[in-house]
Amino acid sequence: MSALLEVTELQAAYGSSQVLFGLDLKIEAGEVATLLGRNGMGKSTTLRCLTGWMAPKSGRIRFAGEDVTGWSADRIARLGLAIVPEGRQVFPNLSVLEHLQAFAANRCAAVQPWDVERVFALFPRLKERASNMGNQLSGGEQQMLAIGRALMTNPRLLILDEATEGLAPLIREEIWRCLATLREAGQTILVVDKYVKRLIALADHHCIVERGRVAWRGDSAALDADHALWHRYLGV
Predict the structure, then answer these.
(1) How confident is the model at residue 197 (pLDDT cuts 50, 70, 90)?
(2) CATH classification at residue 220
(3) For the chain, how far is it from start to end, CA to CA, in angstroms?
(4) Is residue 125 part of a domain?
């Protein structure tokens, strides 16, 4: 059986400025994987290519059995890819409930699909704020809503881009708890974040990107055992 996501020799550029130089990435169904690296090393560009917001210069992206290279963002989303974007990007004039209802879909025919009540069970704070507009939520509540909104699409693959960035420690812990719960439920996840210790506890394997190339890949045990990698590539 092929991987849920398989990226081969991905190259991408902004005009004459090339950013990705033959990046490879593979995620099996049910795995939690990370994409690590300092700012400006190509992580965001990789996500833009995966989600259809940027066309790669060359290489192949296979997702859910389809070659989705060059597909539009909406077409890839309908195949079962959802992203929790950096900066949350909630709608200021929609309530929490309206956000969740607007994104409700089960295109992949999940046996136990995410619905409003299931999201509220994962994030009780959202249930308390169900009638609040997006611009009336705290940063942490907006992040919970962004995750809940993505889950309402019942994705095959959930991507989280800096989901804990700028959050208070208690809220950050709630997001990590949420991700651990999703992992236990079998959700396939790709995480971009800087908290290496928490990612080691969460993820199955890791990919470190340096200047648009894969500098290192391995499992959590290997990453945990080599702190020199952290200093060399992650600035920890």
Answers:
(1) very high
(2) 3.40.50.300
(3) 37
(4) no
Residue 18 vs residues 40, 41, 57, 187, 206: alpha-carbon distances, Å: 12, 11, 9, 33, 24
219 in any annotated domain: yes
**97 vs 163: which has the higher pLDDT:** 97
What is the phi/psi pair of residue 50, to 5°? -60, -40
Please give the structure tokens belonging to residue 120. Answer: 């509220």
* Mean per-residue pLDDT, 73-96: 93
* Mean pLDDT value across residues 9-38: 96
Range of the domain at 49: 1-80+157-164+188-236
pTM, full prediction: 0.95
Residues 95, 229: Cα–Cα separation, whole Å: 43
For residues 119 and 100, what is the distance between their CA atoms, to the nearest angstrom? 9
| Secondary structure percentages of the chain, helix, strand, coil, to 5 | 35, 25, 35
How would DSSP label each residue in 139-170?
Answer: HHHHHHHHHHHHHTT--SEEEEESTTTT--HH
Sign of CA dihedral 79, 43, 96, 202: positive
Residue 96 located in a structural domain: no
Number of domains in the chain: 1
Residue 130 is assigned to a structural domain of this protein: no
pLDDT tens-digit series, residues 87-103: 888 999 999 999 999 99
Structure confidence by residue, pLDDT tens digits, 113-138: 999 999 999 999 999 999 999 999 99
